[in-house]
Amino acid sequence: MAHIDLRELGDDDLDAIFEMMRDSAAVELAAFTASDPDDRTRFDEWIARERGNPDVSMHVVTEDGGFAGTAATFMADGDREVTYWIARHAWGRGVATAALQLLVSREATRPLFARAASHNLASIAVLEKCGFTEVTRNVDFAPGLGRQVEEIVFTLVPTLD
Of the candidates 100, 58, 55, 101, which has an alpha carbon nearest to the alpha carbon of residue 78? Predict the structure, then answer.
């Protein structure tokens, strides 16, 4: 089994993140992405805003020390949310599940929320393996696809000790 870890996102990671977020198969699954994933200027502006926001905690997911994706926590409408994006070369081997488990273990806020396009069955499975349950569904415009897409909102509630 590969060793999965989270580390601080650095400037040297930006090219790999940009390339990962341009992958058309990944954009199709994520749906709620940039309208033009090839626009490096807009990517640089977006990631600079995210990195400068004290409510955002961005990490690089590593697999055996190499780049495998990103994971983050952030505030949205007063709720703490998680998000992750795994590079295609790391799909299907449990990297997303291990990364999300690490992220959740480092984030004390509960409830914690997550979102996935309803057609992204792999991401839904990851969220459910990590203890998230479906709260609601809504249809919204997905810029990455240029059309309306059903999105599922999940929550991870506090455990009773």
Answer: 55
Q: In whole angstroms, give the CA distance from residue 151 to residue 52.
A: 27
What is the DSSP code (8-state) at residue 110?
A: S
Task: Determine contact, residues 82/50, Cβ cutoff 8 Å.
Answer: no
Which residue in 62, 59, 64, 89 sits closest to 74, CA to CA?
A: 59
- Helices marked H in the chain — which ranges? 14-20, 24-30, 40-52, 95-106, 121-129
CA distance 142 to 111: 25
Query: Strand 4-8 relative to strand 147-156: parallel, antiparallel, unpaired?
Result: unpaired
What's this model's pTM, rounded to 2 decimal places? 0.94
Confidence of residue 2 (pLDDT cuts 50, 70, 90): confident
What is the rounded CA–CA span in Å between residue 125 and residue 137? 16
Return the ∠ at Cα 96 (arms to 121 and 52), rounded to 5°. Answer: 110
